[in-house]
Amino acid sequence: MGKVTSYCASRKESETKMTISSNGWYDNARHVPSPYFDVRPSVDDISLLVVHNISLPPGQFGGPYIEQFFTGKLDPAEHPFFKVIHQMGVSAHCLIRRDGEVVQFVSFLNRAWHAGQSSFAGRERCNDYSIGIELEGSDFVAYTEQQYQSLTQLTNTLMSTFPQITRQRITGHQYIAPLRKTDPGLVFDWQKFKKNLKA
After folding, report:
1. Measured between alpha carbons, how far is 59 from 161 in angstroms, rounded to an integer?
2. How far is residue 91 from each of residues 74, 83, 108, 114, measured CA to CA in Å?
3. CA 157 → CA 20, 72, 164, 180, 198, distances in Å?
4. How far apart are CA 66 and CA 76, in angstroms?
5. What domains sit in the chain, N to C, each tagged with a CATH number?
6. 149 with 10: CB under 8 angstroms?
7. Tens digits of per-residue pLDDT, 23-47?
8. DSSP per residue over 88-130, as a string?
9. Fewer Cβ neighbours under 10 Å: the N or C end of the chain?
10. What average pLDDT does this structure show over 188-196?
11. Which positions fall inside the N-acetylmuramoyl-L-alanine amidase domain (predicted)?
12. Catalytic pick from 15, 134, 136, 145?
């Protein structure tokens, strides 16, 4: 694939180059490899971006728990909710924290386990052909400016690297699994996010 360069949409950082390496890792992220991934049916089929949210414990921000959850290191004794989820074995490609930090768990070339039972435009098994980005947050708390900036930067880079991901093929978990999921919720400002995406 080589190294692909994109320019962020933030005016403040408009000269900063964002790249994805040939092994599928985002250079502008902290890398925390997860064991929860497998091989995609085809890397040439990467054509969808799914936005999620997550907070652990629910409604609480900060702390190590999301990273522990995605890497199989969550201690069920830390919180009652963790007893329910600690063995689920799920992941996302990236997490964007409240301060805008990007943490990557799975190479974009591999299949992260983020979407579950899902369908987009009549096609099921979204994990096969999608990239999953988690925002640290909840359905009821506004996302931060730093998160929107980081998400825009990352998305523009992904669109350059994987041209089948277009603005029409960027969606929320709530839309690909509407009977199960509600994230990123009504507080996510799609217009704000998409206005700075490249054409």
Report:
1. 33
2. 13, 17, 12, 5
3. 7, 28, 13, 30, 10
4. 13
5. 4-194 (3.40.80.10)
6. yes
7. 999 999 999 999 999 999 999 999 9
8. S----SEEE-TT--EEE-S-TTEEES-S-S-EETTEE-GGGTE
9. C
10. 96
11. 34-185
12. 134
108 CB-contact burial (10 Å; exposed 0-12 / middle 13-18 / buried 19+): buried
In this prediction, residues 154-177 reach a mean pLDDT of 98
pLDDT of residue 169: 98
Tens-place pLDDT, residues 65-81: 999 999 999 999 999 99
Phi-psi region of 75 (alpha: psi -120 to 50; beta: other; left: phi over 0): beta
- pTM, full prediction: 0.91
List of long-range contacts for 32-35, beta carbons under 8 Å, 24+ apart: 32/67, 32/70, 32/71, 32/103, 32/104, 32/105, 33/71, 33/105, 33/106, 34/70, 34/71, 34/72, 34/91, 34/105, 34/106, 34/112, 35/71, 35/72
Which residues lie below 8 Å from residue 146, measured CB to CB, with a gap of 6+? 98, 99, 100
Query: What CA–CA distance (Å, rounded) separates 172 from 162?
Result: 18
